[in-house]
């Protein structure tokens, strides 16, 4: 009874205090006038000035310019954070589409590629790719990264590799360079993780680590420099009149096709998983162990793509980001729909959930290059075509006996190529004035631009395939000589988690490994 009385008294006093404070709205310990609407917040008094509250025109102009660049910095960094989160999506998609006995191994590759690729990019990859880029116009017009190794052919300069920004020192020790580094590093990491899907379930972890040392240092940055670092592919327009040179707004070729080509070479050289193909040429399906995990990962990737594509403006003050974002959404939707219906009506007569995921991702990959240059209708068509392409590519590579457990080659390689080529067809001439130093907007064949831009895109994707195939074979051979690339057959049958990682992906669960392994038969 006494406790109840005390508690009730305490509640009464609390209510009285609240009523008093509510009745005296002007009460403030700091004796300041509140501004609940925020309309009085941010005035001329907030402009840095020699005489507080009395800024000169020059001081006002400096403040406006600083704030514009600051908006671009924040936009670039925040969208970079979104792209970094895509790594979780890749890990879930790849692990979900593989078998349970390899879950720990597949997840570990997706984890370790992030720090390994990052450190390689920090050491020299960033310098090789962007050390000769010139002026970063959206990031304060910083021009310290201006040392491109160039040769002269046919009387024209051919930029080959950057030479500033190693270890983010010297010219690299600048806020603009740091913002660019973070944003571009997570793009590199997207490329880096693609081959972990195509080579899953049979790739020795030590060989993967050797690959991880090469991807951020030399494999990714070379072609990246030629397209985004001011190199020779970007200059095909200025030097030879081929449109605006090889245009790739957010990375269909620089990021996705590069990863897809590496994935193709590694999957081909590793060979198929044990039991995947029979001696008579028939195929044994190896079902995904967790479709829900793969679908969740796909949603995370689609969300992260709103950093990937709109963030590639490097400018929150570039209002084209709205067009880029909507085009990204539309292509993902039509890609998923096309893949679903193509499987349902043409291929297997069932709406395969794993192909729904790959269709959505294919649409996102394809729209990554043209997202800023096409209309909403163009984006929808590009996505539709990508959804059919990814299904047919998966079946094609299976017929070729190139075993890709997650469809990485088809999603990223095939549709990365298609995305770049689509610019030469669907670019509508409403954006891109001055791109790669060429006057006028980017126009494709269907909008009166002729074939000039298409040829530039075709040259770019061809060079990407040849360059990355060659480098990938060299890296694979190095790993083969040092540690060997493929696990032993008994390890593959048992599952890679314990032999390779020392820990199960699913502890306390008895796995029916016999049902996960198909043995060759005549």
Describe this structure in words.
With 522 residues, this protein is mainly α. Helix content is 60%, strand content 2%. The chain has one domain (61-501): Ammonium transporter fold (Orthogonal Bundle), CATH 1.10.3430. It contains 17 helices and 2 strands. Strands 1-2 form a two-stranded antiparallel sheet. Helix 2 (57-97) runs parallel beside helix 4. Mean pLDDT is 93; it is low at 26-30.
Throw out a few tags for this protein.
single chain; mainly alpha; 2 strands; 522 residues; Ammonium transporter fold; 17 helices; two-stranded antiparallel ribbon
**Widest sheet: strand ordering:** 1-2
Category by helix and strand content: mainly alpha
CATH fold category name: Ammonium transporter fold
Give the count of helical stretches: 17
Q: Total number of β-strand segments?
A: 2
- Low-confidence runs of at least 5 consecutive residues: 26-30
Total number of domains? 1
Question: What's the pLDDT, averaged over the residues?
Answer: 93
- Along the chain, the helix and strand elements come as HHHEEHHHHHHHHHHHHHH
CATH-level-4 superfamily name: Ammonium transporter AmtB like domains
Which CATH class applies here? Mainly Alpha
| Shape assignment | globular
CA(first)-CA(last) distance: 86 Å
Give the biggest beta sheet.
Answer: 2 strands, antiparallel
Q: What is the percent of helical residues?
A: 55-70%
How many whole angstroms does the radius of gyration measure? Answer: 27 Å
Report the CATH architecture. Orthogonal Bundle
Beta-strand percentage? under 5%
């Amino acid at each position: 009874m006494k406790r109840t009385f005390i508690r009730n008294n305490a509640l009464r006093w609390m209510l009285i205090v609240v009523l008093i404070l509510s009745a005296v709205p002007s009460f403030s310990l700091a004796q300041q006038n509140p501004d609940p609407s925020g309309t009085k917040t941010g005035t001329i008094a907030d402009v840095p000035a020699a005489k507080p509250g009395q800024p000169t025109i020059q001081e006002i102009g400096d403040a406006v310019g600083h704030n514009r660049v600051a908006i671009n910095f924040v936009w670039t960094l925040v969208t970079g954070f979104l792209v970094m989160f895509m790594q979780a999506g890749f890990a879930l998609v790849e692990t979900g589409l593989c078998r349970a006995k390899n879950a720990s191994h597949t997840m570990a590759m997706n984890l370790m590629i992030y720090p390994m690729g990052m450190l390689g990019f920090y050491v020299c990859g960033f310098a090789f790719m962007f050390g000769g880029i010139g002026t970063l116009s959206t990031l304060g017009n910083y021009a310290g990264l201006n040392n491109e190794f160039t040769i002269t052919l046919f009387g024209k300069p051919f930029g080959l590799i950057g030479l500033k920004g190693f270890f983010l020192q010297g010219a690299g020790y600048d806020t603009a360079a740091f913002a660019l580094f973070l944003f571009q590093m997570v793009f590199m990491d997207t490329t880096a993780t693609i081959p972990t899907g195509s080579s899953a379930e049979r790739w020795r972890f030590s060989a993967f680590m050797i690959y991880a040392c090469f991807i951020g240092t030399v494999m990714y940055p070379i072609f990246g420099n030629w397209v985004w670092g001011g190199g020779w592919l970007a200059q095909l327009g200025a030097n030879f009149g081929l449109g605006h040179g090889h245009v790739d707004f957010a990375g269909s070729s620089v990021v996705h096709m590069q990863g897809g080509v590496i994935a193709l070479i590694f999957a081909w050289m590793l060979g198929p998983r044990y039991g995947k193909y029979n001696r008579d040429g028939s195929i044994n399906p190896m079902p995904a162990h967790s479709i829900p995990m793969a679908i969740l990962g796909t949603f995370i990737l689609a969300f992260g793509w709103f950093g990937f594509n709109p963030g590639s403006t490097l400018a929150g003050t570039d209002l084209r980001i709205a067009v880029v974002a909507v085009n990204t959404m539309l292509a993902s939707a039509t890609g998923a729909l096309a893949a679903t219906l193509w499987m349902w009506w043409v291929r297997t007569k069932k709406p395969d959930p794993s192909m729904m995921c790959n269709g959505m991702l294919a649409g996102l990959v394809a729209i990554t290059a043209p997202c800023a240059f096409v209309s909403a209708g163009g984006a929808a068509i590009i996505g539709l075509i990508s959804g059919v392409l990814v299904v047919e590519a998966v079946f094609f590579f299976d017929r070729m006996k190139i075993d890709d457990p997650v469809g990485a080659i088809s999603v990223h390689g095939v549709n990365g190529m298609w995305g770049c080529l689509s610019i030469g067809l669907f670019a509508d001439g409403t954006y891109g004035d001055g791109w790669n130093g060429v006057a006028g907007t980017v126009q494709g064949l269907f909008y009166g631009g002729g074939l000039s831009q298409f040829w530039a895109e075709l040259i770019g994707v061809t060079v990407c395939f040849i360059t990355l195939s060659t480098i990938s074979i060299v890296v694979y051979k190095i790993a083969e000589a040092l540690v060997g690339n493929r696990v032993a057959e008994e390890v593959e049958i048992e599952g890679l988690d314990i032999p390779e990682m020392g820990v199960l992906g699913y502890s306390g669960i008895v796995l029916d490994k016999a049902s996960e392994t198909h043995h060759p038969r005549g």
